[in-house]
Amino acid sequence: MIAGKLSFIAGLAVSMALGWYAFPHVLYQRVDQPLRFSHKVHQTTAGMACDDCHSILASGRFSAIPGISKCAECHAAPVGETKDEKLLVANYVTPNREIPWKVYSRQPDNVYFSHANHIKLGKLACERCHNDHGKTDTLRPYEFDPISGYSRDLGESKFLRGAAFKTRTSMKMDDCSACHHERNVHTGCLDCHK
User: Among 118, 138, 146, 161, which residue has the fewest nearby CB atoms (within 10 Å)?
Assistant: First the structure.
């Protein structure tokens, strides 16, 4: 009798662990970005800031991923000796072809998010939601759910972000709500969900 209960509990624990940790690895597919890109080199060596490439246009629209014309301002010819630098110039800058970057933070279709409101009105730093992405030396693989088409880059699970582990923020609804609560910003469902 006790052996049966222990077997059940062990089986339940293994099933939950597999569902919690293994299922996302099976569900989400990983795709490498088209080029190796270093935010760190652009910030430290070139002295650039986030808004040099990721800026809010006069219309209020956010230019999330810069077009190839922005890259061409500095990379009309290879700046470094890396394979990816040569590919950038040969395959994208010279033929004036956009780089097919994978967007990490693709939100559900019913979610409306305005960078302009959060940066200009809320005076939030990019790192508040994007963490230290601007200091990375390479781009991590893009992970997406082939069923929904949404990306996985929405931060780690709440379970792993207990009080001792909360070192990052994410772009999950709970984090947005918590940030609004911290700043005493009152919003209704339709402010973000259209």
Answer: 146
Q: What angle do CA 141, 166, 180 make, to 5 degrees?
A: 95
Residue 164 has pLDDT above 70, yes or no: no
Look up residue 11 and give its two tokens: 């089986």
Name the helix (H) or strand (E) containing 4: helix 2-17
The residue to which tokens 């973000």 are assigned: 192
Burial class (CB in 10 A: 0-12, 13-18, 19+), 45: exposed
Rounded distance between C-alpha atoms, residue 8 and residue 59, angstroms:
60
CB 103 within 8 A of CB 4: no
How far CA 173 is from CA of 17, 49, 112, in Å, comes to 24, 27, 12
Which residues, other chains included, contact 163 with Cβ-Cβ below 8 Å and sequence gap of 6+?
none
The mean of the pLDDT values for the chain is: 82
Where residue 163 falls among pLDDT bands split at 50, 70, 90?
A: very low
Contacts of 162 (CB under 8 A, 6+ apart): none
Question: How many other C-beta atoms can be found within 10 angstroms of the C-beta atom of residue 77?
Answer: 9
Residue 152 near residue 145, CB atoms below 8 Å: yes
The pTM score is 0.71
Closest CA to 117 of 173, 65, 60, 170: 60
